[in-house]
Structures are given as C-alpha cells and as structure tokens.
Amino acid sequence: xxxxxxxxxxxxxxxxxxxxxxxxxxxxxxxxxxxxxxxxxxxxxxxxxxxxxxxxxxxxxxxxxxxxxxxxxxxxxxxxxxxxxxxxxxxxxxxxxxxxxxxxxxxxxxxxxxxxxxxxxxxxxxxxxxxxxxxxxxxxxxxxxx
Length: 146
Description:
Oligomer: single chain
Structural class: alpha/beta
Helix content: 40-55%
Strand content: 15-25%
Distance between the termini: 25 Å
CATH architecture: 3-Layer(aba) Sandwich
Radius of gyration: 15 Å
CATH topology: Rossmann fold
Number of domains: 1
Order of helices and strands: EHEHHEHEHHE
C-alpha cells in the first residue's frame, strides 16, 4: 500500500523532534506529503477564565504563536530536504490522543509518526502515554520512534 500522507505529532520535546526527523526522511523516501501537527492544550477553564474570556483568548494566542515557532523548525528542515510539508496547530481542550486520531482520520493520513515519550510528564504515569493511545485508537499504522 503506497504511503502518500505522513502525519507527525510534534510537541516540542526531544522524542517528538526525533520522530519528526524520522518522518521527514520517511516522507522523502516515499515522496509523501508531511503534515506536522501540534495540539496545544492550554490550562483548563476555571471560573475566572469563564468570566474573563478576553484573557483566555490572549493565553490561547500566545500558546499557539509559540507552538507555530516550534513547528516552523520542522517545516524548515522538511523544506530543506525537498519534502512537501504542511503544518497545523490546533487549540484543543480535549484529549490529545483523540485529536491526533481524529485529525488522521479526517485528513486520510496513511501513517502517523510519534515519539515514544513527549512532554506529558507525570500525567503519563496516571493516564497512559500519548504514543500508547495513538497506537491503540488509530485506524492507520503508527510508527513510534524511540
């Protein structure tokens, strides 16, 4: 089965950078399009934030701008390697795993590449890792890069 769309889930961590480098090489070898996806999950809503929606929007914009700077580095490397690349930063308050899997399904992704560990920190001990969740719920193949 030919692979024409490769999605790399990028969170700015060293493992996700390693995964993005692998995804760039893989996309180049397969003449596939690379999509770099970053899910930003700002601090959950509180009563204060509900009352101060303007401040919440400022926080979201700042987080999205920072994320776009992070993935621009991956985009630049892909472009230097003559790989067709698209980037997408989404602000979401739901599960990162759910968002990655749904994005892959709705964009007809052939392969998802993720780092073995990301920036989830202590949460992964309680909730399971993003990589594990994507492997479990994705309908397309998932490559986990160590």
